[in-house]
């Protein structure tokens, strides 16, 4: 679904990514792990086309998307849920959904219904303004917005960040349903969530891919987890 080869990204004068290699197989959940500042968010944002000052190859369904601007990347069918949730505080949940739609046809409205079944909290908060939602509801809305259009690939940046445990649970349950129809690339520091959802992992350290494999490998390898994640 997605292939990243030797990605280098500069932000201003800084050489942030210095060789990220990553593959996301169809119908999988692939998790990007690494310490704070390792380059996980920059990797996802590079795929979305936020940094024109990059080199390397980014292939989505076999087609190069490197250096395309974010709206073009999104239109190819890549949904993006940023770390800080891109919802409009002054618009209601309903309006936030409508703004995200590329078309208001039956298929899109059916997808919206499916998303509201997946996140009943959003149905309940339908007429509430984005700014008045809880952190968990904002995260759900951000995910729903990214998925309301035809989206073969979803990039999600730390969906559990700052959420109460009950909300983490709800988001994780929803992701488990979403994975049945959507390939996912997930950045996640919460190792419980990462290890329960992930089929494969990539470890990024100092802007480079340093390790990769099936998630089971990492679950079984305490030394590796300690070395790169600082957790036992
Ligand atoms: N706009 C920017 N200007 C300068 N440096 C930046 C900028 N954005 C990110 N960086 C630096 O790039 C490095 C990678 O940041 P990135 O956000 O990708 O890390 P991360 O692995 O996602 O970590 P975190 O879990 O803390 O979000 C960090 O050292 C960060 O300080």
What does it look like?
This protein has about 230 residues and is α/β, with parallel strands linked by helices. It is built from 10 helices and 10 strands. It has helices at about 40-45, 70-75, 95-100, 105-120, 120-125, 135-145, 165-180, 190-195, 215-220, 220-230, and strands spanning about 1-10, 15-25, 30-35, 55-60, 65, 80, 155, 185, 200-205, 210-215. The strands form 2 sheets. Strands 6-7-8-3-9-10 form a 6-stranded mixed sheet, with helices on both faces. Helix 3 runs parallel beside helix 6 (about 135-145). It binds adenosine-5'-triphosphate (ATP). Adenosine-5'-triphosphate (ATP) binds next to strand 2 and helix 1. Adenosine-5'-triphosphate binds near residues 12, 14, 40, 41 and 42.
Name the poorly predicted regions.
Answer: none
Question: Which structural category fits the helices and strands?
Answer: alpha/beta
Can you list the ligands bound to this structure? adenosine-5'-triphosphate
| Distinct helical segment count | 10
Order of strands, widest sheet: 6-7-8-3-9-10
* Tertiary shape: globular
Query: How many beta strands in the DSSP annotation?
Result: 10
Helix and strand pattern: EEEHEEHEHHHHEHEHEEHH
Q: What is the radius of gyration?
A: 17 Å
Average the pLDDT over all residues and give the rounded result.
Answer: 94
The share of residues in extended strands comes to: 25-35%
Largest sheet at a glance?
A: 6 strands, mixed
- Taking the alpha carbons of the first and last residues, their distance comes to 32 Å
């Amino acid at each position: 679904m997605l292939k990243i080869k030797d990605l280098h990204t500069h932000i201003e004068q800084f050489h942030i990514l210095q060789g990220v290699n990553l593959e996301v197989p169809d119908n999988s959940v692939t998790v990007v792990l690494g310490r704070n500042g390792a380059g996980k968010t920059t990797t996802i944002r590079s795929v979305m086309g936020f940094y024109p000052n990059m080199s390397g190859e980014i292939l989505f369904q076999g087609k190069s998307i490197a250096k395309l601007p974010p709206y073009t990347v999104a239109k190819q069918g890549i949904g993006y849920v940023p770390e800080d949730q891109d919802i409009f505080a002054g618009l209601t949940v309903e309006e936030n959904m409508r703004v995200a739609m590329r078309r208001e046809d039956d298929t899109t409205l059916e997808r919206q219904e499916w998303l509201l079944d997946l996140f009943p909290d959003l149905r309940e908060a339908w007429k509430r303004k984005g700014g008045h939602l809880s952190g968990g509801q904002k995260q759900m809305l951000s995910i729903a917005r990214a998925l309301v259009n035809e989206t073969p690939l979803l990039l999600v940046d730390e969906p559990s960040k700052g959420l109460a445990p009950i909300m983490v649970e709800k988001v994780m349950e929803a992701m488990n349903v979403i994975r049945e129809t959507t390939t996912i690339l997930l950045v996640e520091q919460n190792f419980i969530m990462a290890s329960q959802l992930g089929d494969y992992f990539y470890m990024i350290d100092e802007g480079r891919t340093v390790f990769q494999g099936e998630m089971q490998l990492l679950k079984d390898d305490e030394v590796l987890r300690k070395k790169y994640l600082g957790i036992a």
